[in-house]
Amino acid sequence: MKFESRPLYFPTAIEIEAQSLPRGAGNWPGYKSVYEKLQMAAERMRDQKYWHLSSEHIRLMAIIGCGHEETMKAELHRLRVVRPDFMVAA
């Protein structure tokens, strides 16, 4: 019997988290603004000790990639209320 050899693929933590999120096209008004604010928050998390690739950081990166309007806006609001230290002053 001959066994086929093929490379194994292991999904990343972000891909696993993204599977549980709704998907959107990212073509709604204000998408770019919300995307940039979430991206800046993710970058600030990345630069903090013990926050890089934490479960909250991974979830934020998955939300950034989902493109779903309500999910992204809800996360932006949650960060403003719960984690204002990661939000950039406007």
Short description:
With 90 residues, this protein is an all-alpha fold.
Give the overall form: globular
Question: Which class best fits the helix and strand makeup?
Answer: mainly alpha
- The total of helices stands at 4
Q: Encode the helix/strand succession as letters.
A: HHHH
Average pLDDT taken over every residue: 89
Give structural notes.
This protein has 90 residues and is mainly alpha-helical. The protein has one domain. It is 54% helix and 0% strand. The chain is built from 4 helices and no strands. The chain has helices at 13-18, 31-47, 55-66, 69-82. α2 (31-47) packs antiparallel against α3 and α2 packs across α4 (69-82). The chain is globular.
Q: Which key terms come to mind for this protein?
A:
90 residues; mainly alpha; 4 helices; 0% strand; globular
